[in-house]
Amino acid sequence: MGFYYLTGNWNAAEAMASRRVVDTARDYGLSVIPLFILMGNLVSHAGLSDALFRASNGFLGHRKGGQAMATIVACGGFSAICGSSLATCATMGRVAMPQMRKYGYKDSLAAASIAAGGTLEY
């Protein structure tokens, strides 16, 4: 509407808006996020996340904040594989948040460890 107001040409404004919609839909960074969220759901429903967090609790559980440390390491590994911080935070949030709640972590610490680990790329 703003472009139409500035130019007075409705056809140009409509073409610009439609091109923007198509460019957004074709953007690689935005198209893979739903697939990573789907992968996180599959991992969660298959029980792999339970096994991962039981193993990490065995290695790091004796330390204070061991699950938070394991979550950061897992986020770093997943981020290195997929290359997207946003997809890592979304996927690991779906996988790690319920497990950290199960082990008695506060939501603030769980969210902070997922957010910190999601930024670890490359």
TrEMBL record:
Topology versus the membrane: Multi-pass membrane protein
Keyword match Cell membrane: yes
Subcellular compartments: Cell inner membrane
TRAP C4-dicarboxylate transport system permease DctM subunit domain span: 3-120
Keyword NAD belongs to the record: no
Protein keywords: Cell inner membrane, Cell membrane, Membrane, Transmembrane, Transmembrane helix, Transport
Membrane spanning residue stretches: 28-48, 68-92
Top-level taxon: Bacteria
Classification via InterPro entries: DctM, TRAP_DctM
Chief location bin: membrane
The protein's role, per its UniProt record: Part of the tripartite ATP-independent periplasmic (TRAP) transport system.
Name under which the protein is recorded: TRAP C4-dicarboxylate transport system permease DctM subunit domain-containing protein
Lineage: Bacteria, Pseudomonadati, Pseudomonadota, Gammaproteobacteria, Oceanospirillales
